Amino acid sequence: MIxxxxxxxxxxxxWEAAYAGRRLGKNPHILERRRERxxxxxxxxxxxxxxxxxxxxxxxxxxxSMVNYPGIGGVKVPPGTxxxxxxxxxxxxxxxxxxxxQFFEGRPPLGNGRNLITWEEFIDEVLAGAKxxxxxxxxxxIAIVGKPVQVYKLSELNEKWPFDGPPxxxxxxxxxxxxxxxxxxxxxxxxxxxDYTLLEGT
Length: 202
Description:
Elements: H1 9-20, H2 28-39, E1 42-46, E2 53-56, H3 63-67, E3 73-77, E4 85-90, H4 93-103, H5 119-127, H6 138-145, E5 150-153, H7 157-160, H8 185-191, H9 193-200
Parallel strand pairs: 2-4, 4-5
Antiparallel strand pairs: 1-2, 1-3
């Protein structure tokens, strides 16, 4: 069992930047409205080297590496219009959940003050309906765009990355936390059934 310690100030700042904007404070109504807006929009990355192509952003699917790629721009749908050709890179949904749990160092944002919880408690919350961009189904983002999207496995990122430039750098690596990935596995696969269908087509 890995002992998790009090998060560093860097991690706390990262949480606040991700969920409270630039010092919006901790007003739960403001935070909830922000989360609702995030869940109803989809960010798409663009690049001047291939202007008619866009890559959907999906957190915990190498999003930090993509966003920091040289020359990257973007559009948010709605209100923007997506490029003609779209693609998305995605990993196994349960692996993505594990990545999110590690990213928050066992303290995922569930409205409980980011208290330390076990993996099993985290999965129970997700299955009970806890929403967050870090584990929002990729299929929901595709539905928001309303256009066909080419799906690739995350392992194909450097091979299929459409924009001209250097190889993709790995960013935002998290401290490994060993968990039981089989916990309520069938229920998670049912929750992310549309995502698994997308992956099966790759």
